[in-house]
Amino acid sequence: MLFHVRMDVQLPPHMPAAQADELKKTERELAHSLQRSGKWRHLWRVAGQYANVSVFDVGDVEELHALLTSLPLFPYMQIQVMPLCRHPSSVRDGDA
Ligand SMILES: O=C(O)CC1=CCC(=O)O1
User: Fold this and answer.
1) Which residue blocks in the chain are alpha helix, DSSP H?
2) Which tens digits make up the pLDDT trace of 60-94?
3) Does the beta carbon of 53 sit less than 6 angstroms from any atom of ligand 1?
């Protein structure tokens, strides 16, 4: 199943820089691993915002929930999820 996910990140303004850097590093490492596995299909920065738009390809919504809540930045993100299905006029096979 494909899910469109928007994540808006808001770190506490007084979080020490070293702690923020460590969170971002572990988030990046997990994001790389999930992209290589094919579960995190797309990861785009929203221009001008500390936010991303992503597409996840997971088995079900429970797996998506487990994945999102495992992200190191999860406690500092507002997350919006939209389930996707194939558009009848799409010329792609849904795998793209
Ligand atoms: O910077 C972000 O949008 C949050 C994030 C997702 C994957 C990553 O490495 O950072």
Assistant:
1) 17-37, 61-70
2) 999 999 999 999 999 999 999 999 999 999 998 76
3) no
| For the CA of 54, the nearest atom of ligand 1 | 6
**96, pLDDT greater than 60:** no
The number of domains in the chain is 1
In a domain, 89, yes or no: no
CATH of the domain at 71: 3.30.70.1060
Report CA(96)–ligand 1 centroid distance (Å). Answer: 22
Contact yes or no for 81/62 (Cβ under 8 A): no
Q: Give the Å distance between the CA of 27 and the centre of ligand 1.
A: 6
CA of 22 to the centre of ligand 1 (A): 13
Domain membership flag for residue 48: yes
6 neighbors 53 (Cβ within 8 angstroms): yes
Its domain, for residue 66, covers 2-84
Residue 30 resides in a domain: yes
Q: What is the pTM for the complete model shown? A: 0.94
Mean pLDDT to the nearest integer, 28-33: 98
Q: If you search the block for the tokens 């495992």, which residue do you land on?
A: 70
